[in-house]
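Follow-up to my earlier ticket, as requested here are the two runs.
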Amino acid sequence: MKNIKVLEVIDSHGWCGTKEQTYLITKHLSKYFHTELALAFDHKEMIERLENVVPLRFYEEDIGSKRRFDIKNYKRLKKIIEDGNYNVVVANSSWSFNYVVAVYPFLKKKPKLIAMRRSGYVPSFISKYLKYRWADKIVVVSKDVAKLLKEKNFYPEKLEVIESGIDLSRFKPVSDYREEYRKKLGIKENEKVFINVANFQPWRKGQDILLKAFKNLNCKNCKLLLVGHKTDSEEALKMIKDFNLQDKVIGLGFRNDVEKLHQASDFFVLASNSEGIAGALLQAMASGKVVLSTLAGGIGEYLKDNENGFTCNVGDDKCLTKKMEKMLNLSKEEYKRLSTNAIETAKRYSIEETAKKWKNLIEKIIS
């Protein structure tokens, strides 16, 4: 079906769950359709991963928030869409959809449009009618997000649930690098390590709640790794210092070797206030970690307390402390049971299955 042309669109630089999904979906969708990616100039991480996989089309000069006022970004994207003669354009983030919607009325030939909603935030009245009305389909990453949007009468007829997928060839239960990475991080053999993988956004990812819970854990031989964009920033380091946890919490910043950091760790913990499906949590489960997470977004659809991990309500630091204590006291048999169940759960979220659902959706909307 290479006669079907699909343009994936993403905005800005850096790496996060949205960028990870854009990369994986673009890569795997190219097995079914002629797929291209429109992205920012000098998006190093995406270029490194995809430059020899799919054609890359550059439209955005990322100069921070000012990029939205740069008319050249819009002109370049319009030309890409016109020249590419695409059947479908997929906007992988809210802001990339802003770009697409701005140029869409001026296109002579209008491709089908797919927008993404990765979180449970309900768009404003203005955004709903001036922006999302242009979408032929709106893909959400969990049934819970779809339910919330339907309850708010947010284009229920356009909503499609396609859960985010993870790369099971990368995230799997191995320990080849455990000793090497613990040594690199200065972690002793008898120390227990919790890992949190999330960009430093306390208002959304709840690092302040996590640090409060970890401090109250009062574990002398425990360490906490914070992994993600700006987790090594001055702001993050100040927050760690404010909790007096400088000797117990390590901010590692953005890393390309998350799967190896999982090997160095014993437990995964997520304290998010808002999520879609939480790919970082599924990656940890696929890696065989015993996990703990708040029930943000669609997490409760697959994470079941004391079955394949542990759960707490959003914002409940006392519960997080209590469950971390429970994790530390697991027997080897209990750890193995939870780990095995977590691995089996994560297998249902392979990127291959996600790509098949995208294939079916694209075929449906152009038929």
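Run two:
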Amino acid sequence: MESPEMTNPAGDMVAEASPAPPELPKVGARYIWFMVLAQFGVFMAFITPIAISLAIRVQTIAPGHAEYLGYITGTGALFVMLTAPFMGVWSDRTRTRIGRRRPFMIGGMAVGVVSLVWMAVAPSIVLLGLGWVLAQWGWGTVLSNLQISTADRLPESQRGKVGGLNGFATQIAPVFGVIIAQFFTGSPLLLFLVPGAVGVVLVTLFVTLVHEDDSRGLPKEQLTVGRLLRKYLYNPAHFPDFSWNWLGRFLFYFGLTLNTTFTAFFFAERMDVTVDKVAGIIAALGGIGVLATTAGALGGGFLSDRLRRRRAFLVLGGAVMAAGMTTMAFSASLPVLIAGSLVVSLGIGLFAAVDQALLLDVLPEKETDAGRFMGITGFATSIPQAVAPLVASAILLIGVSGGQKNYTLLFLVAAALVLLGGLVILRIRSVR
């Protein structure tokens, strides 16, 4: 006999005392490695413009107006934040012979390639910004559907491992992208298209070589505008573990953004030099930091699967980050600054990889609404990225006068938030 159901105000169907869904079968090495390669490719195509290509184009089109880069990237992030749940709902309800996710990977890749060409030839800042919005939409759609695919396919016993490997791939991809881009700075078209070509090849391998079941036999749902808008909301009381995970992720990324927004200015202040003098140090530290982040991602991901524990690793990740940020807050020399920064990087990798696995553990309605809830999860990172820089600017002015900035307070607040983000995860009851 089926359990009774109720509908909440947001349109969520909630089963009372419904049994846990059966464990998914393990995926093979083909799925895992082509997923890792595909995410590597997306980050090559998608993050390289943020790292270098967009800055070069802004400098070419509008010399002396570096602030335009912030306007462009902020607009793109806002667009994705507002459209991600809609794209997820659309993906959930797509019925094709090649499945629900692959059509969006193909379409997103096409839009992404067009956007790269657009940005390479854009004659004005407005058109460059529009190209970046298209890039965010296209490549972001590819990435989100790759991640939704992991929700569709990965059993609990493999989520930490795959999360760690994906974390490793997405950390090193931008480094490779910047290295490649340096050879094409004289050609705007190649500057964007060469990293983009890597993305196209690797995503195409996943789309063509990884099977996805025909979705035409799945139940269909008619969506009105009102019902679609309600999909942006849900009742947290009906999915408490998902809600605690969302809050923990929100606090973590808010603290992380507070920590990273003014890094260059913070280093310059502590070293008593101008900002341009610390660029080389930060670049070198970023390269070493990738190794620390990767160690945290791979170690945490694999161990969380082996030990069948998630929460302890997330608490540890938040605590490690908080320790690193506190060290930086009270640092007075370059070696201590570097040590604190590397500890932060280790914590980032540990938290992010295991949190991705935990999200898949607690994601509601995976069979029908995985894309919708993955889109809602995106708010937990996009809102901090938009709001935290403004909050950081206000914190820097507390308790100081003249031209001074209170970096110590800023980093202590950031440490408290990431620590709290880890501790909030302890409220989750369905996952150990």
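The only thing I checked on run two: The radius of gyration is 22 Å. Let me know what else you need.
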